[in-house]
Amino acid sequence: MARRVSAPLPAPASTAGAAYRVWDLPTRLFHALLALLIAAQYASAELRWLPMAWHYGLGYATLVLLLFRLLWGLVGSPSSRFRAFVHGPVAVLRYARAALRGAAPASAGHNPLGGWSVLALLASGLVQALSGLMTSDDIDEAGPLVDAVPLRWVARMSAVHALNRWVLLGLIALHLGAIAVHSLRDGGALVAAMWHGRKRLAQDPQLRFAGLGRALAVLVLAAAAVAALLWIALAAAR
Question: What is d(CA 50, CA 61) in angstroms, rounded to the nearest whole number?
């Protein structure tokens, strides 16, 4: 059930507009949890700070979280849906030109460039999580689906997993760089908005937000889908 946006916070006299709620709690939790999961997976696989057994469990959790975000992008709160922030090339170029002039229009959610950044990160994260299920180092580590697919697939997915980790790191670096630039311009308002969900705007965006019950249902569905995928693949391998 959708809930009406809460009343705006009063803005200081020196700031135009008021702080309106633009991000729901599930989207903010997704953002924070995904960052933690990716960091923990690099800590286990690359730095060996954690046992590799953690890497597998964290990988399953990441896959569930990414699937949740894809579904939430279809049935979640309006500001979290893909149709709200994924725009065509003309809109992206128009926004990019305005941003270079320092005249980019304010947006309630992701701007046109940020929207494509979100899609790129989600896509790379999914590639990494799915390829990891079929990856083997030919020594003592193997994903849970290695025995369920042909050897040529294991070789291909192992290569994809190794290459895409750098793609993912590059996208994360670009994402953090963009956040740093925005923070210099807005005093950290963008980062703060991902914590408390509010953003200062000239006018009320009139957003409505999905309830937590819907988010929980989507999360359960995502977890069930990942569990079913693993169960079917493992059963086929026996």
Answer: 16
